Amino acid sequence: MTTKKALITGLTGQDGSYLAELLLDKGYEVFGLVRRSSSSNLDRINHFSNNIQILSGDLLDQSSLMDVIAEAQPDEIYNLASQSYVPISWTQPALTAEYTALGVSRLLESIRRCKPNARFYQASSSEVFGQPDESPQTERTAFRPRNPYGVAKAYAHWMTINYRQKYNLYTCCGITYTHESPRRGTEFVFRKITHTVAQIKLGLANELKLGNLEARRDWCYAKDAVYAMWLMLQQEQPNDYIIASGETYSVKELVECAFNCVGLNWEDYVSVDPAFYRPDEPVQLVGCIDKIKTEIGWQPEYSFNHLVELMVDYDLKKLSS
Ligand code: NAP
């Protein structure tokens, strides 16, 4: 049997690093597109970087994408690269569109020209729903993005579907809701909480400042999410799916759970700071996972409590070492 080849964009990010590990475990030859940086950004992949091939390219540069695809000749391409932080999309809206929207056009066009039989996964986001008119959201819920990141992801989503319809390419969109892990940046609220709780337990901090404690999110583990991405590209026909936990928890429930993990009372340490309120708080973003469950048999393996425990545990160990 010939070895399957996969190309991952966004290899150095949270999802890219977990997906590469999954594909290596499955015996794939893995290629990662990495943009040039003046200092190393390989922290999340250093432990396996000898087992993959890193190719230099950038979503801003069409010819680099064509060269990378022509060189790797991948059977599967996972586009996980993006400007992925919503607040920055308000201060850098044009750059966000360049990476997150037009970058996908460049990639699809490169696939069409250089490797039209490759299977393509596009990382869509629940931010395309913005303030949805129904809850939970399904694959048929109307898109009403409410920030430049969501708008850029909506463009990329529809371009991916258009290339499937017009050129008969095997292209899929996975609409992921928030997913977390010890590899998540501390600017995101889940990791900010687990990291600060570990700091407080170790005497390195004494306060956790948060915004709206009643805000609810649909959270799952990044390892579960990347497994869904891989599964989607193994199906006979390309299709689009919501990837979520199907449940919501409030920030307060997350905080309580994280402080419980270290045996402390959250009310002694948490203060609410309006500066952390997100200006356009989306209402009840929660994914309906009936389609992905029924059609391809995916559902998350890790519970919310398990995820909180493993992240607090990781942060405690990392800060103590
Ligand atoms: P992440 O950790 O922020 O990683 C983003 C990756 O994109 C990094 O490897 C980054 O490379 C790369 N990148 C950015 N601009 C690029 C460019 N111009 N050319 C090439 N590479 C570029 O994101 P993530 O959490 O793994 O998320 C993966 C994907 O899922 C993203 O598209 C994100 O928008 C989407 N998503 C994520 C979530 C979530 O909860 N995590 C939810 C919904 C959707 P550098 O290392 O060089 O910066």
From TrEMBL:
Annotated Gene3D superfamilies: NAD(P)-binding Rossmann-like Domain, UDP-galactose 4-epimerase, domain 1
Pfam families tied to this protein: GDP_Man_Dehyd
Keywords: Lyase, NADP
Listed cofactors: NADP(+)
GO molecular function, one term: NADP+ binding
EC id: 4.2.1.47
Sequence similarity: Belongs to the NAD(P)-dependent epimerase/dehydratase family. GDP-mannose 4,6-dehydratase subfamily.
Protein name: GDP-mannose 4,6-dehydratase
The organism of origin for this protein: Nostoc commune NIES-4072
Taxonomic classification: Bacteria, Bacillati, Cyanobacteriota, Cyanophyceae, Nostocales
Chain's gene name: gmd
